[in-house]
Amino acid sequence: MLPQPATTAPLPPRLPDLPSPNFGPGTWNDWLLTGFAQAVDAAMMRAMGMVVDAVLLPGPDEVAEMRAAAQRIIAAAPWREPRRFFGFVDDDVRPLQSEGRRRRNLPGGQVVARRFTTDYEPAAPTVGEANLTDAVHVEHWLHDGEAPRTTVLALHGFSMGYPRFDGFALFAADLYRAGFDIALLTLPAHGARTPPGARFSGEKFAMPRVDQLNEIVRQAVYEIHAIANWLRAHNGGAVGLLGLSLGGYLSALMAGLRDDWAFVVPMVPPVCIGDLAFRFHARSRRVQRTPELAFSRDELRAAYRVHSPLAHPLLVPRERILIVAGKGDRIVPPAHPHALWEHWGNPQIHWYSGSHVAPLPRREIARRIVAHVSAAHADAPARADAPEGSRQ
């Protein structure tokens, strides 16, 4: 456990536990798909574990300083009032500049590659010196015509960030054919935004530094908020969120920060970064050989509580929510989306047979997402401040 902070301020409330759902026996086909998908996830977990052991775990001389930094953060006021950490969501912030170029044609439309600059300011200047405030990349799938369109703001998963692959994983083609515009946002430190020297896309989201990870989550929230405001004004239509894994975590968090999303669809969403980090720490061979490297589950849960969706009440009407989760998920265990479902008062949830890496059957998942988005957006009002002329 973390030592008590040198302050009389109370520690933040504990996050709720994550009970596992009971799926029942299921069908023979369901059992086969789940078993196969679990094997795929298990192979990925072994590979991820080797990466954690090799390049991400801190050395013994770093642990004490990291614990002291986490203690200071947890004692700060925003950890008792998490929304204060994201106070900018109450303002209509938008990008300072934008530029776009036509990338390719689509049936009845086109793809525009956009770059945005923002005026994001880090919460802690010392952390911000190591943070990324580079241009925000969005691949924008637009239909021809001037009528306002609802836009799906799509958020990719950890270590992704390459629009061609992200579009496939997030069912962009299915949603585009259903009549929606798509905005594939590249999250900080991913894809084309991977900083020099990083060993893989998204590495900064995996570093075991509480201050850095919390700061980059805050930056991602700022960018999602700013780009959504720009899309509403530019396209004249509503905006909804679809997120996968890390993107699912962020979309679930956004549902607790703003109430103006046309729909929110978190796919295989984790809800407690501390729990995921603890699972990797507990399995690490280096930690098993050197116990002083280990962090407790409680201190990890407390350190990342400020941006857990479980620390924020749902603001979006439940009928606009669809949680999508895998029965065989070994990377984000089913307990995570199940806890989100309970926290949000039991909105719609679709349990598919596959896993995190192998979402099966894809056709059924796509059908459920398109049906939900189509039904939810019908009640979303168009913006009155849409520009006249080209939507390009």
Quick overview of this protein structure:
With 392 residues, the protein is an alpha/beta fold. It contains 12 helices and 9 strands. The chain has one domain (28-377): 3-Layer(aba) Sandwich (Rossmann fold), CATH 3.40.50.
Describe this structure in words.
It is globular and about 60 Å long. It has helices spanning 28-56, 60-75, 125-128, 163-169, 172-177, 210-235, 246-255, 273-283, 285-289, 297-303, 335-343, 362-377, and strands at 97-106, 109-117, 136-143, 151-155, 181-185, 239-244, 264-267, 322-326, 348-352. Helix 11 links the parallel strand 8 and strand 9. The chain has one domain: 3-Layer(aba) Sandwich (Rossmann fold), CATH 3.40.50.1820. The longest helix has 29 residues, at 28-56. Mean pLDDT is 85; it is low at 1-9, 127-131 and 383-390. The chain is of the alpha/beta class.
Termini separation comes to 53 Å
Strand fraction? 5-15%
Specify the overall morphology.
Answer: globular
CATH class: Alpha Beta
Strand/helix succession: HHEEHEEHHEHEHEHHHEHEH
What integer value in Å does the Rg equal? 21 Å
Continuous helix count:
12
* Biggest β-sheet: strands ordered side by side in the sheet: 1-2-3-5-4-6-7
Tell me the total number of β-strands. 9
**Helicity level, as a percent range?**
25-40%
- Contiguous uncertain segments of 5+ residues: 1-9, 127-131, 383-390
CATH superfamily: Alpha/Beta hydrolase fold, catalytic domain
The pLDDT mean sits at: 85
Corresponding CATH architecture: 3-Layer(aba) Sandwich
Domain module count: 1
How would a crystallographer describe the biggest sheet? 7 strands, mixed
CATH topology group: Rossmann fold
* Derived structural class: alpha/beta
